[in-house]
């Protein structure tokens, strides 16, 4: 099978959501993150919710590993789960220290509406859907973060207070990890029926929308209205 055929899903999925990605790239939260002018309160809201998100995301990755059809997929997603919980949590803990957020404060902070919605979708998909749809739903969190990280890295203020975040998601180690998830998703799509591929596209688009909702919720410091 040629590389062009193997990469058809990822190329088609990204092209279909290019306008949505551009909306994410230019949204006020990410503009402030790049300029270093994002308020501490907004970033604090974001980093606490992101820490909550990564626990559920790690569970969804573990379920993807369990459903993987081959040993390489098991290892890929099991390692991704470990990195989500261990490696990225270390990034959060650095900001938690800076903001004076202790374990009790974190535990007492409920999931925001956007975080709750996103995790509910990913976990329901991971439990109920076939492997192909699961990996398509998980992919935007990797891919959108890489592209946003790269974009912000290229225009970030030199004394940016969010440099640790920017260096993590704009860095080469994260980029290589994302490439591996893209390749696994393309391989899954290559053996899927047209109907299943269409379900993968719907999952990819929905998760990309939820990426926007997560950052928008952080910008508005959104909580539950009642």
UniProtKB/TrEMBL annotation:
Location of the Thiaminase-2/PQQC domain: 28-220
Keyword Protease tagged: no
Organism, as annotated: Methylobacterium dankookense
Listed GO MF terms: thiaminase activity
Enzyme class: hydrolase
EC number, as in UniProt: 3.5.99.2
Keyword Hydrolase among UniProt keywords: yes
Record's protein name: Aminopyrimidine aminohydrolase
Organism domain of life: Bacteria
CC per GO annotation: cytosol
One Pfam family cited in the UniProt record for this chain: TENA_THI-4
Keywords: Hydrolase
